[in-house]
Every structure is written in structure tokens, then in C-alpha cells.
Automatic annotation (TrEMBL):
<dbReference type="InterPro" id="IPR036942">
    <property type="entry name" value="Beta-barrel_TonB_sf"/>
</dbReference>
<keyword id="KW-0472">Membrane</keyword>
<dbReference type="InterPro" id="IPR012910">
    <property type="entry name" value="Plug_dom"/>
</dbReference>
<dbReference type="Pfam" id="PF07715">
    <property type="entry name" value="Plug"/>
</dbReference>
<feature type="domain" description="Protein FecR C-terminal">
    <location>
        <begin position="30"/>
        <end position="90"/>
    </location>
</feature>
<dbReference type="InterPro" id="IPR032508">
    <property type="entry name" value="FecR_C"/>
</dbReference>
<dbReference type="InterPro" id="IPR037066">
    <property type="entry name" value="Plug_dom_sf"/>
</dbReference>
<keyword id="KW-0732">Signal</keyword>
<feature type="signal peptide">
    <location>
        <begin position="1"/>
        <end position="23"/>
    </location>
</feature>
<dbReference type="Pfam" id="PF16344">
    <property type="entry name" value="FecR_C"/>
</dbReference>
<keyword id="KW-0998">Cell outer membrane</keyword>
<keyword id="KW-0675">Receptor</keyword>
<protein>
    <submittedName>
        <fullName>TonB-dependent receptor</fullName>
    </submittedName>
</protein>
<feature type="domain" description="TonB-dependent receptor plug">
    <location>
        <begin position="148"/>
        <end position="222"/>
    </location>
</feature>
Length: 784
């Protein structure tokens, strides 16, 4: 053996010994309490229940291997100043060491099946749902902040074909089939910058529950998914605040104790795009405004766009008041706003004229929640809220001397009563009632020729629901059975929606899961014309009208919009041991009542109105391995077939869905060491379906003759992302984090949409919409 090889082996052994000694030294130091609790759960086959705030920042010395469970709990009690109550041979409740004046409301939380589903802060529960906690969020490729709606796109079966948070496809569904709840209030706007940024501030969001199937009976709507965002709801008399900025916006938040019984939570965020022109803003603008009236005006040879101004902001407020130890009142307020203004100027006959076009989008909500703990087992929650969405556009066409005003407005008011009864640690009962009134209006006003149309619909819904959850004494079996009954008096219709969630653990490390649900919804989004609302946010909300034929009201066609109904079932098998997770879930979903206008066709069906359905079958696979406390990675793969069926189209034969992405693959790796976090990932999926002009197209007519619908596909999509953060302390109470990310590191040119138009000579033009190019971003945050 050569001297070079001997020296190499020597240095390798020396490095391994040093690393081992260092690891042994670290083991003697205090560890986060959550790490020790997880080890105890695995060792003694128990489950801890606790409020996150009670164990936050708690550390303890690692336990000796010869400790019994009772000795371990007593040791942790001395180290952490917490109470550990052994309820039975399976459950341990953790509480703050303080008196509760006679009212002990010990609640066993849902059992966590996987604690780091992709990264820290993302967990999978035994009811099939996923939970995201931004406060403990690790890192994902391309993200330096825990953007809620960007984060869920990392989950298997969830993606956005156009890279926006306003068009998230969950198992082949459209974005309007996702129910977004903010502290129990339904939201109709999900994004800033017209979809590139989540409209929900992650730094004031405590927890996000995501359901793809097996939804709780208390949730209506959302036939594809539920995204339930919850703010902190406990008063801990601790002041917290933070400030931060990146190359798109700046934000701040504060949690302010007002007294022992009251607290105020505030947050605000505003773009800096109208103040500073950054490279990130330029890339975002290029992506979102391409192929819009705003961009076309800038590129027109006869008119120019100038004085453009774009900005957005959001404000959230939550007031918490504990009237008594049993009575709690919460007041919620939310407002999000986007605004685009630009002047279109033209010179004709030596006369210069400039007119202002604009687009505004807002969602405002206010709600009041009252919670009453009648006993340690029985509690009720009552909530009333009003939410309002408004999309307003004024578009001037100087060359044609035309002004077009468009408005889409949603008013949603609801009252809910939710009852929870815990019979014991194994049996829980949930039920309640919900009343909802939704009114949606659409306005179009044109001055040349003179035309005005205003249509408003209102639908009221009454719903009652009930649900029973059973957990076996050894916590290996979890069964949740529920049903929801919806009544729509306007249509004299009833919908019974059963729900089921079943989970069975076997051979210690395996879990078998069955989920199923029936659901319906009365709201959906449609596209009348691709250039509506300046071509930037062209989807508008509409209500189901239960019509079967086209009607004419105020010289405008009223098309049938049915109630959308879905059926879904899935079966999953999960293996989790030694920081290795292997998960596979097969599913089938059928959705009835969709319309062509809700699917965004840009082929021969663009101006056709038909009612149909889609059916998707697929499988989601995830492999996640944590190699150590600092290094981890995962790979996920989804395969699906998603087909439309419209009896009046394509001779009644099925054809691929516009969101039929057969193959999707994600690979990512993370590195976390002390205060440094790194993430690198790759996203690939097959191209979306496309309809090309037919080879037999007649160039002498005024129409495009297309081939079979969605018979071809665009090129495959490929994107590589990177992100890094570094945390450090400024003082004992102030902490800071700097971050940097690069979206699409390789600057891959991805075509996310293609359609065809005719020019003045009746020649077919191909129009490609591109994804984001290489997009850097940096951030800096300070928390107190």
C-alpha cells in the first residue's frame, strides 16, 4: 500500500474519531425537549399531548438508558418546571406547573404519525391530514420564508402548473375547488402579485391543517382540499414582535399583552415594488404581466404605457379576551389589497391623449368567535363572520375609443355552532350547525357600443353535521366516522355527505390508512374571455344557479352553472422507522358538475358552454430519509390519469384534463447545522396537455381548425431551486435571520402554456407563456 493511501486512511480515521468525540460531547449537552419526548414515545410506546407554547424553547439533559418511565417523567419535571401527568398506560399530558382553579381541561391532541414529513414543522397525523407550523418550519428549496401556499406545493399530489398560489391543483382539481380558511373564515383571494406570493402572513399563522381526503365533517365546500390556517389562540402574557423585508415586500408583526386576560395580535405587510425596482420584481413582472393588456399596450406600435404603478399590502388583527376561565372571545380582522395603475398614451392627428387603466383586487373579512368550556369534557364554539371579495378593472382602448369596466364581487356571511364532547381518551364526538349566505355579482359596462350588464345571485345553505372519533387503548387503531347534511332551500335540494378516516398501525412500524368522502360546493370560478380584467386575473367567481338551459337577462346570456359534487376514496400504506419514511397512497376521485368555462380552455372549446365531469386515478409515493440530525432528503413521485367527459363534446368520448400531469417528481436535500440551513431541490413534471391546430386547417377562413382536444403535450417542466438561511443573536432578546434563495437556478426556459391566434392575414400565430426565469431573493428578519 502506498504512503499516499496510508496517509489518506489515517486522516479519515482521525476525522471519524474527532467526529465521534464531538458527537459524544454534544450528547452530554442539553437537547430540545421535543427531541427527548420523541425518543420516549418510541421507547415506551406512549403518546404525549401538550400545547406547543408550553414546551417551546424548553431543553433538558438527555435521559439515562436505565430510567423507567416514571423516573424519566419525574426527571423532566425537575428540569423543565412542567407537570407530566400519566393518564393511563398510553397517554401523558404535559401542562404548565400552575394552578387552574378547579377547572382541569386535559385534552389529548391528535397523534403524530410522522414528525418531519418533509422538513421540520410539517407533520402527518393519524387522521390522514398534514399540519404545517411556520414557527418551527425548517427550510425548503427556493423558499427563505415559510410561505404557506408555496409550502403545500411541496406535498405529494399538490402542484401548480403555472407556478402561482392562485392556481393550485390538488389531485387534478382546479384552484376554486380548494377551501381556504383563515381563522375559520372563508377566503376568496389567495395571492399577492396576482398569484406569485401567498396573501397570508406566515409569521402570524400558528398552524395550517391540510386535508386532501377524509375531511372532517365540519368542513363544507372544498371538494379538492381544505387549507385551514389558524392564528395563535392562547393568551400567554408574553410580548413578541418582528420586522423583516425581502426584495418584494417588508412586514412587521406584534403580539401585545394588554392585561392578564387580553391580548392584541397585529401584522402588516406592504410591497416595496413602487419604491424600489429590484431584480426579483422585474422577474415577477415579466412572468405575471406577459400576454396581458398592460404588456400589450407597452409593446404596441401606436400607443405606449407609462406611469405604471403597482403595489400590494395586507393587514391582520386579532383581539383575544378571556372573560372567565371558561369563556373566551376572539375578534378577527383581515384585509388584503392589490393595485395596478398605468396610463395608455396615443398620438393621433398631432393630438396626444392619455387615459388611465387600472386593476384592483381585495379581500376583507371580520369575524367574532365565542368559546365556552362547560365542563372538562364539553365545549362549544360559536362564530359569525362576513367576508367580501372585490375584483375591479377599468380598461381603456384608445385606438377604438372604448372604455370597459368589469367587476366581480362576493359577499359571504356565515354563522357556525360547533360542539365537542370528549367521553374519554378513546372516544370523541363532534357536531354542529352552519348557516351560510353567499351573494356574487358580475358587472360589465362598455361605452362603445353602449352596453351594461349586472347580474347578482344569492344562495343560502343550512348544514348540520356529526362525527365520532375512536382511538384504541394502544393507539394503534384510529377511526373517524362522520356525515354532513346540506340543505339549499333555493333549489329545494339536500346533499348527504359521508366522511371516513381509518388508520391502523401494525408490526410497530407500518400503518394502513383508508380515507373517503362525498363533498359539494356552490361557488366556482369561470373565464368568460382570456383578456378579461386586463388579462391578468381573468377568473371570476360565480354561484351555482341549477339551470339546465341558457337564459337571456339584460341582453346577456346566463349559462347553466350546476352544483359541483365529488366522490373520493384512497388507500395508503406507510412505513416509518429509524428516520426512514416510505409512503404510498393510491386514490380515485370523480367530480361532476364542472363547466367548460371553469376549465380555461383555449382551443375549440373556448367559447363553448357544456357541463361535464372529470375522473382522476393516481398514486403518490414519498421516500424520506433523515441521515442525521443535520442532513436529510426526500424524493416524491406522483402518477395519475385525469380525463374529462362532456356528453356534448368530442362525441361524448373522454379526453385528457387540462390539468392532466401524468408524472411529477420532486427531489430535495436539506442541511441544518446549528444556525445554518441549506436546501437544494429539483422539480420535474410532464408537460400539460395542449391542442394544436389541425394539419387540415383552412388558411382562407376566419377560424382555427384544431386537432383532437388535448391530444399533445407541452415539453416537460424542469426547475432547480436553492435556499439558505443563517440565524444569529443580536442581544439576549433580539434574534435575526438572513436568507438567500434562487428560484430556477439553471434558468431553464419552461413553457407553461401555449395557445394559437389568427393575425390580420389569417395566419396562425403560436403564443407561448414562459415560467419564471432565474429569480434571486434575499431577506433579513429581526424578532424580539
Amino acid at each position: 500500500m502506498s504512503r499516499k493511501h496510508v496517509l489518506s486512511i489515517f486522516f479519515l480515521l482521525f476525522f471519524l474519531n474527532v467526529a465521534t468525540l464531538k458527537a459524544q460531547t454534544v450528547q452530554k449537552e442539553k437537547q430540545p425537549l421535543i427531541t427527548i419526548l420523541k425518543a420516549l414515545e418510541d421507547r415506551f410506546n406512549i403518546s404525549f399531548s401538550y400545547v406547543d407554547e408550553s414546551i417551546k424553547n424548553k431543553k433538558a439533559t438527555p435521559l439515562r438508558d436505565d430510567f423507567t418511565l416514571e423516573e424519566a417523567l419525574e426527571f423532566l419535571k425537575l428540569e423543565t418546571d412542567l407537570d407530566f401527568e400519566l393518564l393511563d398506560n398510553r397517554f401523558v399530558a404535559i401542562k404548565k406547573a400552575q394552578k387552574n382553579n378547579g377547572l382541569v381541561n386535559t385534552q389529548r391532541l391528535e397523534e403524530v404519525v410522522v414528525s418531519n414529513y418533509l422538513t421540520s414543522g410539517i407533520t402527518k397525523l393519524n387522521d390522514g391530514s398534514l399540519t404545517i407550523k411556520p414557527e418551527t418550519f425548517g427550510i425548503l428549496p427556493g423558499l427563505i420564508e415559510p410561505d404557506v401556499l408555496q409550502t403545500i406545493q411541496a406535498l405529494p399530489g399538490v402542484l401548480s402548473a403555472d407556478e402561482t398560489v392562485s392556481n393550485i391543483n390538488v389531485r387534478g382539481g382546479t384552484h376554486d375547488q380548494n377551501l381556504l380558511l383563515w381563522d375559520g373564515i372563508k377566503m376568496y383571494q389567495s395571492g399577492h402579485f396576482f398569484g406569485l406570493i401567498s396573501a397570508f402572513n406566515p409569521y402570524t399563522t400558528k398552524r395550517v391543517n391540510v386535508y386532501k381526503n377524509g375531511t372532517r365533517a365540519k368542513y363544507g365546500d372544498g371538494i379538492s382540499s381544505i387549507i385551514d390556517m389558524q392564528l395563535p389562540d392562547d393568551i400567554d402574557n408574553e410580548f413578541k414582535a418582528g420586522l423583516g423585508f425581502n426584495l418584494i415586500n417588508a412586514d412587521g408583526y406584534a403580539k401585545i399583552p394588554l392585561s392578564d386576560k387580553s391580548e392584541l395580535q397585529l401584522s402588516t405587510r406592504r410591497s416595496i415594488t413602487d419604491l424600489i425596482n429590484t431584480s426579483t420584481f422585474e422577474q415577477y413582472s415579466k412572468r405575471i404581466f406577459q400576454d396581458s393588456d398592460f404588456e400589450n399596450a407597452k409593446n404596441s406600435g401606436t400607443s405606449i404605457s407609462q406611469n405604471e404603478s403597482f403595489y400590494f399590502y395586507d393587514v391582520t388583527t386579532k383581539f383575544l379576551y378571556d372573560v372567565t376561565e371558561k369563556d373566551k372571545i376572539r375578534l378577527h380582522f383581515y384585509h388584503v389589497f392589490n393595485d395596478l395603475n398605468y396610463d395608455e398614451q396615443s398620438t393621433s392627428n398631432d393630438r396626444s391623449e392619455a387615459l388611465n387603466s387600472k386593476l384592483t383586487q381585495r379581500n376583507s373579512a371580520i369575524g367574532l368567535t365565542y368559546t365556552r368550556d362547560w365542563t372538562s369534557k364539553l365545549s362549544t364554539t360559536t362564530q359569525v363572520y362576513v367576508t367580501n371579495y372585490d375584483l375591479d378593472a377599468t380598461n381603456f382602448d384608445i385606438l377604438n375609443n372604448q372604455r370597459l369596466i368589469q367587476e366581480n364581487q362576493v359577499y359571504d356571511g356565515a354563522a357556525k355552532l360547533d360542539v365537542n364532547y370528549t367521553y374519554n381518551h378513546q372516544l370523541k364526538i363532534n357536531g354542529g350547525y352552519q348557516f351560510t349566505e353567499v351573494g356574487i355579482s358580475n358587472l360589465e359596462d362598455v361605452n362603445n357600443p353602449n352596453f351594461r350588464s349586472f347580474i347578482r345571485d344569492v344562495v343560502r345553505t343550512h348544514a348540520i353535521y356529526g362525527e365520532t372519533g375512536f382511538l384504541s387503548n394502544n393507539a394503534k387503531t384510529k377511526l373517524v366516522l362522520g356525515a354532513r347534511l346540506n340543505n339549499l332551500p333555493k333549489f329545494n335540494m339536500f346533499f348527504l355527505e359521508p366522511r371516513i378516516s381509518f388508520s391502523q398501525r401494525f408490526l410497530n412500524d407500518f400503518r394502513f390508512e383508508v380515507l373517503g368522502e362525498f363533498k359539494s360546493q356552490t361557488t366556482s370560478q369561470i373565464i368568460d374571455l382570456q383578456n378579461d380584467f386586463l388579462g391578468i386575473e381573468n377568473r371570476r367567481w360565480v354561484l351555482a344557479n341549477n339551470k339546465t338551459e341558457v337564459e337571456v337577462v339584460n341582453n346577456k346570456n346566463i349559462y347553466p352553472v350546476p352544483i359541483v359534487k365529488s366522490k373520493q376514496a384512497s388507500v395508503g400504506l406507510h412505513y416509518n422507522k429509524n428516520k426512514l419514511l416510505i409512503s404510498a397512497e393510491g386514490y380515485i376521485k370523480k367530480v361532476d358538475g364542472i363547466t367548460t368555462r371553469s376549465q380555461g380552455f383555449q382551443n375549440q372549446y373556448q367559447f363553448v358552454n357544456a357541463i361535464g365531469s372529470y375522473k382522476i386515478k393516481g398514486i403518490d409515493v414519498l421516500l424520506n430519509k433523515q441521515f442525521s440530525n443535520i442532513l436529510g432528503g426526500w424524493i416524491s413521485y406522483s402518477y395519475s390519469t385525469n380525463n374529462y367527459t362532456f356528453n356534448d363534446l368530442n362525441n361524448g368520448e373522454s379526453f385528457p384534463n387540462n390539468a392532466d400531469i401524468k408524472h411529477a417528481l420532486t427531489f430535495a436535500g436539506t442541511y441544518t447545522n446549528n444556525n445554518i440551513k441549506l436546501a437544494l431541490g429539483l422539480n420535474w413534471h410532464s408537460g400539460i396537455p395542449n391542442t394544436e391546430p389541425s394539419v387540415n386547417d383552412n388558411p382562407d377562413d376566419d377560424i382555427i381548425t384544431y386537432s383532437s382536444p388535448n391530444s399533445t403535450n407541452l415539453e416537460d417542466y424542469l426547475r432547480t431551486d436553492f435556499s439558505a438561511t443563517y440565524a444569529f443573536s443580536i442581544s439576549e432578546t433580539a434574534h435575526a435571520t438572513v436568507g438567500a434563495s434562487i428560484w430556477n437556478v439553471l434558468n431553464k426556459k419552461n413553457i407553461i402554456n401555449t395557445y394559437y391566434t389568427l393575425d390580420d392575414q389569417n395566419m396562425v400565430n403560436k403564443v407561448d407563456n414562459e415560467s419564471l426565469g432565474i429569480t434571486p431573493n434575499v431577506s433579513f428578519r429581526v424578532s424580539f
